[in-house]
Amino acid sequence: QVQLVESGGGLVQAGGSLNLSCVASAPTAISYAMGWFRQTPGQVPGKAREFVAAISWTGSSTFYSRSAKGRFTISRDNAKNMVYMQMHSLTPEDTAVYYCAAGPLQTVLSGPIDYWGQGTQVTVSS
Fold this sequence. Notes:
Layout lengths: L3 E4 L2 E4 L4 E7 L8 E7 L10 E6 L6 E3 L7 E6 L4 E6 L8 E8 L1 H6 L4 E2 L3 E6 L1
Parallel strand pairs: 2-11
Antiparallel strand pairs: 1-3, 3-8, 4-5, 4-9, 5-6, 7-8, 9-10, 9-11
């Protein structure tokens, strides 16, 4: 069982930046791809969380949603069981609960997700 704990969320003004972090509890997470997803306020319950970014377990491959590309950067430090996401040029549309995810790369990209964190709130004010 892998436990994921996110941190780094908060309130930021439009145009600002935030850095999210996620720590995995088990060393086996090193062999997993990691990803970030988000769920916006008022989203229909049961609707899939929106994919934001993912990184392969070696860190050699990264993947981004259209809205994240060019503004967000995902990275990882396997020695620390950590994955990060730097977010720049934030807009109110980025307001959401951001979730860390782990699992085989194909499932991180296409679902179903093996492991989820509890989420961290990101709020961007206009």
